[in-house]
Amino acid sequence: MTTVVDVTAYAERKLKALRAHESQGENIFFLRMPEEAQQQAFSHEAFERVLSKVDAPAHEDDLFAGLRP
């Protein structure tokens, strides 16, 4: 199940963080995009829920169960 969340309120903060680290990456793809496209790219995030076949410990939801061997 995939959900797309509107995070427009945080787009500028995310872009500022990326720009602050610009010197650490020569070709940061998002920073080469037109400003309008950057806003659109950082305004939505997709989350995917995947059911794990690994049992969680009793009486709790274990978000990391799927990472266990």
Please provide a written account of the structure.
Helix 1 (8-20) packs across helix 3 (35-41). It is elongated, with a radius of gyration of 17 Å. It has 3 helices and 2 strands. Strands 1-2 form a two-stranded antiparallel ribbon. It has 69 residues and is of the alpha+beta class.
Would you summarize the structure shown here?
The protein has helices spanning 8-20, 29-32, 35-41; strands at 2-6, 44-48. By secondary structure, it is α+β, with helices and mostly antiparallel strands. The chain has a two-stranded antiparallel ribbon.
What distinguishing features does this structure have?
single chain, 69 residues, alpha+beta, 35% helix
How large is the count of helical segments? Answer: 3
- Beta-strand level of the residues, as a percent range? 5-15%
Strand order in the sheet with the most strands: 1-2
Question: Secondary-structure element order, as H and E?
Answer: EHHHE
**Structural class by sheet pairing and helices:** alpha+beta
What is the distance, rounded to the nearest whole angstrom, between the alpha carbons of the first and last residues? 24 Å
Q: What would you call the shape?
A: elongated
Helix content: 25-40%
Taking all Cα atoms into account, the compactness measure Rg is 17 Å
Biggest pleated-sheet summary = 2 strands, antiparallel
Task: Find the count of extended strands (DSSP E, 2+ residues).
Answer: 2
Uncertain ranges: none
Mean pLDDT: 78
